[in-house]
Sequence to fold (228 residues):
Amino acid sequence: MVITKDKLNAEVDAMVYYKIKNVEASLYNVDDHRKQLTALARTTLRAVIGNMSLTDANEKRSTINSEVETVLDKETDSYGVEVLRVEIQKIEPPQDVQDSMNKVVKAEQEKIAAMDIATATETKADGDKRAEIKRAEGVKQGLILSAEGEAEALITVAKAQADKIKLVNEAAEKYFIGNAQTLKKLETMETALKDNVKFIIDTDKVQTIISDAAGVAPIPIFEKKKPV
Fold:
């Protein structure tokens, strides 16, 4: 029985493999080398495992084997004994301690499992969030492109209408302004003749004025003879 660093009792069983390399020393230098080797092995195991927690002792059995073997081989050299190997067979705490440790291990495993589930859930939620953002960005980009297309279409229509208006204005200016002036002159002439308007003008200029007012070819006018 050993007491670990965390104050837990444990039953430890180990095997020590050795050989006699000096028979005379094994008989005369020690009283029952086998019994002495066993006692030294127990003491060394208590010292080595006593510096470890129970968990560390179970996880580091190879370290325990190596340290105990080194100590025993050095101490038993005067016995004429060579320690070949030390092997820990078991390190077992009392049943109640073992039950508690099993519960701790189980709780730790459940905690790890819960953390894994939480991480997986968080990862899935994060993926769903990124997917929603991507979809929203796609809809937004689509609306922007649609609006830009409509704006470009309106601009194109406006330009076409502006060009049409420009052509109409140019045509009106080119083909109708002169005719409108001619029509206006004819209307003025017609109104003047209808209302019997009298013009006091020099007879030499009557033909020119009427022609200009009507916007037509000159009309022959007889000059009024002056009295003798």
Q: What stands out?
A: The mean pLDDT is 78. The chain is about 70% helix and 10% strand.
